[in-house]
Amino acid sequence: MPLAAMLVFLLLFFSVSANAQITVNQDQIALTQFDTHYYIDESRTQSIADIQNAPFSSATNRLTLGTNAKTTWVRFALHNSSAVKKQLFLHVPEAYHTEQLTLYLISDSNTQIRHSIDLENNQAHEMLYGGTAVFPLILSPNERYQVYLKSDVFSHQWFTLAIYDETQSKHALVSENYDIAIMVGMLLALMFYNVILFLSSRKKENIFYALYLVSGTTWIALSYGFIATLFGIYGKSMMHLHLSLLTMPSFLILFMISIFETKRLYPTEHKALMFVLLLLVSDLVFGVFDIIAALKPASTLAAIMIVVTLSVSLSILKKGNPLAKYFLFGHGLFFTFNLLAIGYYKGLLPNTYVTSHGVGIGIMLESFMLAFIISYRIRVLERIEKQQAALQVQANTDPLTQLYNRRYFDQATEAILADDKQTYPVTIAIADIDFFKKFNDKYGHQVGDEVLVVFADILQKFTPDNAIVARLGGEEFIIALPNHSESQAFALIDKVRKQIENTTISSHTHDALSITASFGVCEIESLLKPAIINADKALYCAKENGRNQVMPFSTLSEPRLSLQTQ
Predict the structure, then answer these.
(1) What count of Cα atoms within 13 Å lies in the side-chain half-sphere of residue 114?
(2) 120 and 41 in contact (C-beta within 8 Å)?
(3) Contact at 8 Å (CB) between 98 and 170?
(4) How far apart are CA 172 and CA 231, in angstroms?
(5) Across-strand partners of 164?
(6) How far apart are CA 477 and CA 456, in angstroms?
(7) Burial level of 96, CB count in 10 A (0-12/13-18/19+)?
(8) How many CB atoms lie within 10 A of CB 562?
(9) What distances in angstroms separate CA 508 from CA 449, 451, 505, one per listed residue?
(10) Sign of dihedral through CA atoms 161, 167, 168, 171?
């Protein structure tokens, strides 16, 4: 045998013998792990005849080869060792991101069957089910076949192969993308919730987080075939959706700026974030016109973004911001799982669920942590608001009786008088406990304080809900009665006076103590201060006339104090 012929024979022999072979002799077929060989056609022009003699490399049915393998051939052998014809189906679940898929089924007798799916034109194809390509493989009895699959992609070369019988093929198609549907559903739920939060609170971090979730959801649904399955969009038609690679980090940076208030609190870190944001937005605008060119620096920009955001959050943590540690944890998870995904897409790491779904897992984990940060910040703000409210109450409240003080009484009553809707009269009443100084001297200040508390409770309990009851100081109290004329206020306050007279006060040191009180009542004409002076005059008159009575100012002979006579 001539030397050249012998070399060709040996080459063909080792090529075929080294080829991965799958023997089919079962009724139910579900092959999700098997050996293959692959070859990268760098020229992207080689024919099937050329490929049959090409030097293939060993691989598995899960391939990830990076960006330098835009045209890749995969080869494996099938042997139907049974006595009946077998119909199998080759699944390519990641077909949605490819440009074109071509399958050759070549028998030992050199019979050749070719199937091709062109995803660039986005037209429906009978062998395309959602984002999965399904190629029929009809195997004659006791026949051997070579299967060649050519995958042309726009950027990254990665795919998984599976072989099923008809029943298992249907089950696989039905069960695909369940995990992605759950991811998408959870992210969309978070997004809608934060839109509602934004509408109610108008806090910018909520809308930035919602937009981040939209971008992340788009990327997950795009990368894992959910958009292709749901909407039948493939290949070049969905290339612009890859802009979510740029919008997602942009909204994350805006979220950081808002949640950490970097412009006000951390100016140096703010400048670093704004610089990265400018780079991302510039590439995003460029991508609207040329998406392929814009995606080339996307991974570099993503690396810059991760380094800067991690550095900024570390710096903010060192400066004492309590939210930074949670952001660092979530962003660290995102970074870790994205490193696994980058290794997968570059062909540096094997095709496993974690590596192939690293971006989605990272987005999910970071999204949950950002949601925690928002809820944590809400709790902090609520705690601050409660503290401020408590301080406000303390500032407006008499510490002993828990009634309002004079400061709050004046503000609240003036607000009622200034309200254009207030068309009914407002009357004030000033109260003074009769002989309280003697009572205090006789029984002691502690008993006196107990009496003041009981007296305040009676005033609060037996006046309307809209009344403003306050302690002026000592044993003097004041009441504003909206929607009460002087005569109506007189009738009401006289009932309060009788209630005080008939109340027995039980002290821890004395039993069956009782008190009385005098009241002066005056309707407000226009201004509060003159009315208080006039009500005080009426109170003085009630005391002069024997105490334990209510005196309306209108019954006095004194002229009403007005603004002019004030």
Answers:
(1) 6
(2) no
(3) no
(4) 19
(5) 30, 89
(6) 8
(7) buried
(8) 13
(9) 12, 11, 10
(10) positive
Q: Which amino acid is at 404?
A: Y
Q: Give the distance between the most distant pair of CA atoms in the chain.
A: 144
| Short-list 479, 491, 497, CA closest to 426 | 479
The pTM is what?
A: 0.59
Distance of CA 217 to the CA centre of its chain: 12
- Based on its alpha-carbon atoms, the radius of gyration of the chain, rounded to whole angstroms, reads 42
Looking at the DSSP bridge assignments, the partners of residue 129 are: 132
d(CA 466, CA 470): 13
Alpha helix (H) ranges present in 140-266?
166-175, 178-201, 204-223, 226-231, 244-259, 262-265
**pLDDT for the residue numbered 246:** 87
- Chain centroid offset of residue 226 CA: 21
Q: What is d(CA 106, CA 118) in angstroms, rounded to the nearest whole number?
A: 21
| 473: enclosing H helix or E strand | strand 468-473
What are the catalytic residues?
A: 475
Q: What's the pLDDT tens digit per position in 234-270? A: 666 677 777 888 898 999 999 999 989 999 999 999 9
Quick: pLDDT tens for 283-333: 989 888 887 788 778 778 888 888 899 999 999 999 988 888 999 998 889
Cβ–Cβ < 8 Å for 182, 188: no
Task: Collect all residues with Cβ–Cβ distance below 8 Å to 447 and sequence separation of at least 6.
Answer: 440, 507, 509, 510, 513
Structure tokens at 208: 């930035």
What CA–CA distance (Å, rounded) separates 347 from 432? 89
Q: How many residues does the chain have?
A: 566
